Every structure is written in structure tokens, then in C-alpha cells.
């Protein structure tokens, strides 16, 4: 079923007097009102991101509150191998505190690992980082955003000195002359986002999409480039080569607002059009057309998403597109520049307040003495007790149970058994732990392996703030009561901090935690000091940085200057090397992974919602009919897809929208359809992002296909 065919109710069931809040899922954070009996959601017209639109996940979000297997009591395993059985909160929290004490006594503070998520509110993400550093005093904390935004973040910091997803309000998009979307399929990943692109096109702007598949998004583009996976960097360098050759470089902008262009100008000499066509498979005239569309006005925007970023060279790939945007003189102009599409609900805020291994609140660096001093003063501790940087997400998961790795893991807001690269290995690492505690509202594939499971409240049952893809801080409001027996993550952290006799205060009130976060972030790059719940309410959200209550907030942080020491954006020369795992005789096909409209991430939430399961019931592999014929695979048959790390068995979907040399599997399912059994763990050297987007596989018809007939 195509995206447009999926059923979206035409007349929503209105939630009379519903509480205004935002969707539980992605970074668009569509506005919705929640209320009524039974509880329903209604889209809000007053939120610019969605202006009355929702995707199918948003429409069905109320069902998440009442999924039949919602957890409402803590669960505990008496000993290794024993089943998970209901217990009291006292027993569960005492057990966790007891295991922490036992393991830290034996192996030191870093024996405990913490893993967070970009879906947590700012308040939770902040409190989790603080909990790790001063209650557990472990350096071993990271979060799933490392799997999501980290390459774009690293490139943004390197070029602009600040990691902000979109360079301006989402309503700027409609005013762009052209938008080039690299490795993003927003028609499925953020459907209401398409409205902004459509409006731009109606005003005469052009949409260029770069994706190895002709996706639902690419079908609506004026130009679609279909490169081989993992070759975007070469494509960007090739476009810059053409821009220089065609005299499209904005020399005034380059002279006034940037540094380092000469080295890049020289380095892209080597990316002459024919060579780039050979590397990428994109015909030279298409490249030329893309550059002309981008260069014809100065309000063009280059956007990257996971397709360009989730590579072992993701940071450099994003850098190549930033180089192109800078040379064309785009950044800093309304509607123009470079931006990346943040993914998770609080992907932006979740990477600012200290759940990242190397970071303290306000996007401060944990190894910066002044930052440590500032944050320690807010926390009421000696800076000496704050540990140094820890391992990145994949490295942390890979070290679980190892001699020098964490022996226990506390997990909040992620399901790595499904979503981590080479998840078969990660499952083994998790099994090697002495102790695992998971806070979730459903028994996810990872929670199922825990020794203690803590049933937590979810989006519409609690309040807090989320920072959306624009960098706008929004209020998530409590609309319904949580079921009996459930506690919030802030209550869980407070209960544990108390048992661990942690220093500092551990409020369970989101508003109080937010005030502390404001103080901790004050003066940092992501400064929230001037943002209050009241302002968010009256102003429809506030853009950071916002250093004081009389500051208007910063919708367009690069308008006047960049946030580097000299205020100039930095060009950095980067070179193409291709995927970490190229194809060969044994594994002749590229596998790319990604998303479908109806499911969210590891699927822990959406695989429990009937209309979403109906829309997209099972995992599948997209194969070009020519490749299918060569592989002996027919439409609808089960096919075995094997990489050097594992095998999955999924149903074949023959489509002529994908390249002949590439197959696509979404990663939302567990068990034999788990795409991450196949993926590669090669890491980007700067961001530590794993190469989720490309690895080498072979295809075989599943033996049972014949036997069934
Ligand atoms: N329905 C739905 N929506 C979501 C989510 C979800 O799970 N489901 N998750 C949210 C989150 S956390 C995120 S990060 C965003 C992700 O949003 P997107 O980045 O839009 O989503 P993906 O499907 O991961 O990848 C986008 C495209 O990258 C392409 N691609 C793969 N390899 C390459 C390559 O080498 N080069 C190029 N140019 N393209 C390539 C794929 O074909 C795919 O169409 O979505 C958010 N929204
Ligand atoms: N092959 C492949 N793998 C990928 C990707 C890809 O494109 N391809 N994309 C990667 C990306 S971009 C991402 S973001 C990751 C995401 O993958 P995961 O980190 O696994 O994300 P989710 O499935 O959203 O997991 C969130 C879990 O936390 C629970 N949860 C939600 N909200 C809360 C809360 O407030 N508190 C608590 N305690 N629990 C909560 C949910 O029920 C769910 O079980 O996957 C990555 N993995
Ligand atoms: S686009 Fe994202 S925020 Fe909007 S309704 Fe869908 S999942 Fe929710
Ligand atoms: Mo993500």
C-alpha cells in the first residue's frame, strides 16, 4: 500500500476541552489536543510545524496510553534465569540500589552504565545526566541520539560552532528558492513537513531529493538524484566543483563570513563531473541541474537527514554539503542555508543537557574546567566528583559485561536489542551483564531481558518540555492521569538518588527541574536561562539560545555571525572513501535501512497499535525486479538476506523505485525480521555514529517458499 492510500480519518473525533500538547513521536512535535472519554487526539491549528495536520502515528497516539500490555507494576527476577514477576516499588528500587552498591564496591564507579534517549523530555534528560554523574558518579553514560543526530551535530559544531538542527523557523522553508533534501524521506518520516515543501513549490521554489530510492518524497520532487549508497560526499564535492566552474560561488559572502575556502576549492578540483558520475551513478546533467537550482537564488536550503549521516564518514559527508552551502552564500539568510532534520521527539533538547558521554548541561563540554565548576555549583557538589567523558553509545553497549566495561546498565527510553547496529552482538553483551534495569511503559525486547523493569508514565500523563527540530522549546502538558502503579522517570530517579544517599536535590516536579536546568545551562552554547514555562505558553514556544527573561530567543542563530571564535564559518576539505563495507563477490548487494510511515523506531510503541499494524504488518525487503530475477526471488516470497554478521528472513517487495544494486529493509521489527542483525558497526571517527545506512549483503530465496506450494 502506498503512503497516500493509507487511511487517515477525514473528520477527527474532536476532543472537547482537550489539553493542548504535542505528539509522543518525532521531532516535528506536531501540536495536538488530548482529552475526552475515551481519550482522543485532535490536531492543533496554532502550531506552525503541523498547522492542523498529523500523520497516522499522531492520529492513533491516544491508543498508546491504553495498549493491552501496558506495564502498571514493577517486575523483578529473583535470580538469573527466574521469570520476571510483579513486585512492589520499594522492592524494585531497593534491588537496583543494592546492585549498584554491590557492583561499584567490587569494580569501581564505572561498573554502572546508563543509557538514555532522545525521546525523553529536557527535564528527564537533564536529570538522568546529573544522576549518572553525581548519584552514581559513573562516566559511563550515553544515549540513542548518538545513533541519530551525532554526525550532523559534529559537522555543525565544526563549521558553525553551534549544533542547531534547522537554521530558522520551519515557516522560513516556504520562502526558499530551492531545497535540496539529502537522505531524508519526510513524506513518511514527518508527513506534515511536506506542507512546507509544497508551499515552497507553489511559490516557485524547487525541491531536489537525493536518495537511492524513488521514495514518496522523491516522487514529489522537481529533481531526484539516485546515487549509490554511501557516495553523497563525492556528489557534494562534485556539485561544488560544478558551482565553481559555473561561477556560482558567492565570493563576497565567502570573503566576509567564512574561512578556509581556498583549501576546499583546491580539494574539489579532483571531483570533475565524469569522475563523480562514475562514483555515484548520478548523470552529469542531473548534477548540473541540481547545482543550478540551488545557485539561482540566495535563499536555497540544503537539508541532510539520516540517509546522508548514518555512515562511517557521516560527519565529513555533512561537511561536504555545508561547504557547498557556504560557497553558494546560503547560510545566514532567511529560508536559506544548511540544516539537518532532527529525528526523535526531543532529539534536539536531548543532545543539549548532559546525557551524552562528553557533555554537561547547556551543551557544555565535560572536560572544560570552567564548565565543570559552573555545573557543580548548580548541583551543590565539588567539581572534583564529576567524572570525565565516557564511552559513546555503541562503544558503551559493546563494552557491557567486559572486564573493563560496565557490569550493570540502567536504561531509560531506548530499545537497543532492536535498534543498535549488529544487534545480535549487542544482545550477547546485554546478556553478559550482571544486572539490567529498564524503565519503560511496555515490555520492549530489551526490557524483556531486564532483572528489574520499572513501569513509567508516558507523554500525555506527565508534563515537561521538548525542543523540536526548529530549536523551539515547547510544553508537553499532562492531559490524563497515569494508571495506578506507574511512576514518572523523575520519581524513579529521585527514589534511587535517595537510596544512594546522593548529594544535590532531586525534585519530582518538572517545573522545578526545568528551573535547575535553566541555571545549569546559563552561559552555555544551548542557553535556556531565559525560558520559562509561562513564556513557552504565551509565546507558542521559545527558541534557544535565550540567556535572560527579557531576551526574545534566537530563531535564526546564524543571521549575523557564526558561533566560532572569530564569528566566521569554517570550510573543511573532505574526501570520498565510500562505504566501510563495499560489495564483493560473496556479498554483492548494498543493503540500506530506514523507516516506514506507520512504525516508529524499534517499533516498541507502534507494533502494539492495531491500525498501524494493519497499515504495515510485517518486515519486508524492497528489491528491484531485475535484481530479484537474478536472485531467483519472486514478489511476496520470503527471502533470506545475509551479511557478514547475520541473516534475516523477510518478504520480498518488488519495486522499480530502488537502484538495481541495492535493497532496503526498514528496522522497526524484532526477531527474524530484525534489520540490525545485518548492519555494520563501523563508526564515524568524530561522531562515533555507526554505519546503519549501508552494508553488503547477499540474497537467497527462503527454502520453504517451494515447500509451501
Ligand atoms: N514513520 C517514522 N517517522 C520517523 C521515525 C520513525 O521511526 N518512523 N523516526 C524519527 C527519527 S528518530 C528520525 S532520525 C527520522 C529519520 O528520518 P529520515 O532520515 O527521513 O528517515 P530514514 O528512512 O532513516 O532515511 C531516509 C532515507 O535515506 C535513504 N538512504 C539510505 N542510504 C542512503 C545514502 O547512502 N544516501 C542517501 N542520500 N540516502 C540514503 C533511504 O532510502 C531513506 O529513504 O525520522 C523520524 N520520524
Ligand atoms: N538499521 C537501522 N537502525 C537504526 C536506525 C536506522 O535508520 N537504521 N536509526 C537509528 C536512530 S536515528 C534512532 S533515533 C534509534 C532509535 O531506536 P531506539 O533508541 O530503540 O528508540 P525507540 O524505539 O523510540 O525506543 C524508545 C523506548 O523507550 C520507551 N520510551 C518512550 N518514551 C519514554 C520515556 O519518556 N521514558 C522511558 N523510560 N521510556 C520511554 C519506548 O516505549 C521504547 O521502548 O534507532 C537507530 N537504529
Ligand atoms: S509527523 Fe511526527 S510529530 Fe507529527 S504526528 Fe507524525 S509522528 Fe507525530
Ligand atoms: Mo533518530
From TrEMBL:
Transmembrane segments: none annotated. The keyword Metal-binding applies. CDD domains: MopB_CT_Fdh-Nap-like. Its cofactor is [4Fe-4S] cluster; Mo-bis(molybdopterin guanine dinucleotide). The keyword Iron-sulfur applies. GO terms for biological process: respiratory electron transport chain. One of its GO terms (cellular component) is membrane. GO terms for molecular function: 4 iron, 4 sulfur cluster binding; metal ion binding; molybdopterin cofactor binding; NADH dehydrogenase activity. Residues 8-69 form the 4Fe-4S Mo/W bis-MGD-type domain. InterPro entries: Asp_de-COase-like_dom_sf, MoPterin_dinucl-bd_dom, Mopterin_OxRdtase, Mopterin_OxRdtase_4Fe-4S_dom, Prok_molybdopt-oxidoreductase. Pfam families: Molybdop_Fe4S4, Molybdopterin, Molydop_binding. Keywords: 4Fe-4S, Iron, Iron-sulfur, Metal-binding, Molybdenum, Oxidoreductase. PANTHER family: NADH-QUINONE OXIDOREDUCTASE SUBUNIT G, RESPIRATORY NITRATE REDUCTASE. This is Assimilatory nitrate reductase (NADH) alpha subunit apoprotein.
Amino acid at each position: 500500500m502506498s503512503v497516500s492510500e493509507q487511511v487517515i480519518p477525514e473528520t477527527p473525533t474532536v476532543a472537547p476541552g482537550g489539553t493542548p500538547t504535542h505528539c509522543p513521536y518525532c521531532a516535528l512535535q506536531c501540536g495536538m489536543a488530548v482529552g475526552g472519554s475515551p481519550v482522543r487526539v485532535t490536531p492543533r491549528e496554532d502550531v506552525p510545524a503541523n498547522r492542523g495536520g498529523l500523520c497516522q502515528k499522531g492520529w492513533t497516539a491516544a491508543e498508546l496510553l491504553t495498549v493491552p500490555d501496558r506495564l502498571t507494576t514493577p517486575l523483578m527476577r529473583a535470580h538469573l534465569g527466574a521469570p520476571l514477576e510483579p513486585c512492589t516499588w520499594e522492592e524494585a528500587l531497593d534491588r537496583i540500589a543494592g546492585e549498584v552498591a554491590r557492583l561499584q564496591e567490587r569494580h569501581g564507579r564505572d561498573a554502572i552504565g546508563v543509557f538514555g534517549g532522545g525521546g525523553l523530555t529536557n527535564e528527564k534528560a537533564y536529570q538522568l545526566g546529573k544522576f549518572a554523574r553525581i548519584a552514581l558518579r559513573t562516566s559511563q553514560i550515553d544515549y540513542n541520539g548518538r545513533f541519530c543526530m551525532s554526525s550532523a551535530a559534529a559537522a555543525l559544531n565544526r563549521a558553525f560552532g553551534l549544533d542547531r538542527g534547522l537554521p530558522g523557523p520551519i515557516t522560513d522553508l516556504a520562502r526558499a528558492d530551492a531545497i535540496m533534501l539529502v537522505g531524508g524521506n519526510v513524506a513518511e518520516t514527518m508527513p506534515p513537513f511536506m506542507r512546507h515543501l509544497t508551499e515552497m513549490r507553489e511559490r516557485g521554489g524547487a525541491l531536489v531529493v537525493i536518495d537511492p530510492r524513488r521514495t514518496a518524497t522523491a516522487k514529489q520532487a522537481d529533481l531526484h538524484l539516485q546515487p549509490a549508497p554511501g557516495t553523497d560526499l563525492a556528489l557534494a564535492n562534485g556539485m561544488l566543483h560544478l558551482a565553481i566552474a559555473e561561477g556560482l560561488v558567492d565570493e563576497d559572502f565567502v570573503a566576509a563570513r567564512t574561512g578556509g575556502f581556498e583549501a576546499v576549492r583546491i580539494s574539489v578540483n579532483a571531483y570533475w563531473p565524469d569522475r563523480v558520475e562514475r562514483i555515484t551513478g548520478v548523470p552529469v546533467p542531473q548534477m548540473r541541474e541540481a547545482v543550478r537550482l540551488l545557485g539561482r537564488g540566495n535563499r536555497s536550503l540544503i537539508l541532510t537527514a539520516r540517509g546522508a549521516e548514518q555512515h562511517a564518514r557521516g560527519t565529513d559527508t555533512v561537511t561536504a554539503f555545508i561547504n557547498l552551502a557556504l560557497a553558494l552564500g546560503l547560510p545566514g539568510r532567511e529560508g536559506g542555508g544548511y540544516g539537518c532534520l532532527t529525528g526523535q521527539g526531543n532529539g534536539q533538547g536531548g543532545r543539549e543537557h548532559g546525557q551524552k558521554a562528553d557533555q554537561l548541561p547547556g551543551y557544555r563540554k565535560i572536560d572544560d574546567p570552567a564548565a565543570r565548576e559552573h555545573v557543580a555549583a548548580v548541583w551543590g557538589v565539588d567539581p572534583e566528583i564529576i567524572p570525565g567523558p565516557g564511552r559513546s553509545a555503541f562503544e558503551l553497549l559493546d563494552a557491557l559485561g567486559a572486564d573493563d566495561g560496565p557490569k550493570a546498565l540502567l536504561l531509560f527510553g531506548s530499545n537497543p536489542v532492536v535498534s543498535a547496529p549488529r544487534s545480535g552482538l549487542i544482545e550477547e553483551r546485554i546478556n553478559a551483564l550482571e544486572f539490567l534495569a529498564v524503565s519503560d511503559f511496555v515490555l520492549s525486547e530489551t526490557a524483556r531481558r531486564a532483572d528489574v523493569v520499572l513501569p513509567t508514565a508516558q507523554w500525555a500523563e506527565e508534563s515537561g518540555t521538548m525542543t523540536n527540530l526548529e530549536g523551539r522549546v515547547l510544553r508537553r502538558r499532562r492531559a490524563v492521569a497515569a494508571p495506578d502503579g506507574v511512576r514518572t522517570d523523575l520519581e524513579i530517579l529521585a527514589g534511587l538518588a535517595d537510596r544512594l544517599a546522593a548529594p544535590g536535590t532531586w525534585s519530582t516536579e518538572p517545573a522545578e527541574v526545568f528551573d535547575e536546568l535553566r541555571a545549569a545551562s546559563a552561559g552555555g552554547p544551548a542557553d535556556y536561562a531565559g525560558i520559562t514555562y509561562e513564556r513557552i505558553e504565551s509565546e507558542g514556544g521559545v527558541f534557544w539560545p535565550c540567556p535572560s527573561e527579557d531576551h526574545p530567543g534566537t530563531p535564526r542563530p546564524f543571521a549575523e555571525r557564526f558561533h566560532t571564535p572569530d564569528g566566521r564559518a569554517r570550510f573543511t576539505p573532505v574526501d570520498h572513501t565510500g562505504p566501510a563495507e563495499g560489495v564483493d563477490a560473496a556479498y554483492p548487494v548494498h543493503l540500506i535501512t530506514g523507516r516506514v510511515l506507520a512504525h516508529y523506531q524499534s517499533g516498541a510503541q507502534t507494533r502494539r497499535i492495531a491500525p498501524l499494524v494493519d497499515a504495515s504488518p510485517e518486515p519486508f525487503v524492497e528489491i528491484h525486479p531485475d535484481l530479484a530475477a537474478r536472485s531467483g526471488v519472486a514478489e511476496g516470497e520470503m527471502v533470506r538476506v545475509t551479511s557478514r554478521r547475520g541473516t534475516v528472513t523477510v518478504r520480498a517487495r518488488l519495486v522499480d523505485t530502488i537502484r538495481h544494486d541495492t535493497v532496503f529493509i526498514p528496522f522497526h521489527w524484532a526477531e527474524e525480521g530484525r534489520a540490525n542483525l545485518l548492519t555494520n558497526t563501523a563508526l564515524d571517527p568524530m561522531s562515533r555514529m555507526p554505519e546503519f545506512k549501508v552494508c553488503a549483503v547477499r540474497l537467497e530465496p527462503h527454502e520453504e517458499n517451494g515447500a509451501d506450494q
